[in-house]
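Protein record

Derive tokens from sequence
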Amino acid sequence: MPSLATEIRTGATRVGKFGWKCQEPTLHQFAGDAYLNEMGVTSPEFPDENCPQGDCSRLAFNPVPTLNNDGTDVARFEDFMTLMAPPPRNDRGYHSPVGEAVFRAIGCANCHTPSLVTGPSPVTALSNKVFSPFSDFLLHDMGTLGDGIAQGSASGRQMRTAPLWGLTTDRHSFLHDGRAKSVEAAILAHAGQGQASRNLFLRLNPGMRNHLLAFLGSL
């Protein structure tokens, strides 16, 4: 399901696309949120410090109670993310075409959408371009795979479909909390709306399972 979020600088209600919970509608707002909640840096759209351990009285000792950043760095971070190239794909081996067919057949592509098209953009290189994130950027009820955190319009069971591009990088943990130490373990942890595909994965013979994992390894 789509998540609706408020764009702070306009007050408009827009579809959220960024963050584990699709809680932010734009990269600019996602950047400001990250500056505040990951680094404790306030900016014009996020001017209020988080209370330490929930105790707002401790903010009386804040040595810099004014804005930590005038928004310039947030804008630069937005530009950096906007202009990043997609992660390159691995050379496809003979397994990949068969694995891609398995990927679609067991329903993985229903949420991990292979390709999308960007909207109009003042940046020509980004305007109306086909890209392949392997995500629909929507919220899904993931049952026990959820993080238990309600944020924005998302419940504790709902998570944004994680993009699969970049699986070729040297990673050793997967899922939002790093609980899975392999791609296969991540698949087996799927629950809720991902349960049916997980069950079909378990029914694959070893050869078809290897084809699928090889395809995922090419993303």
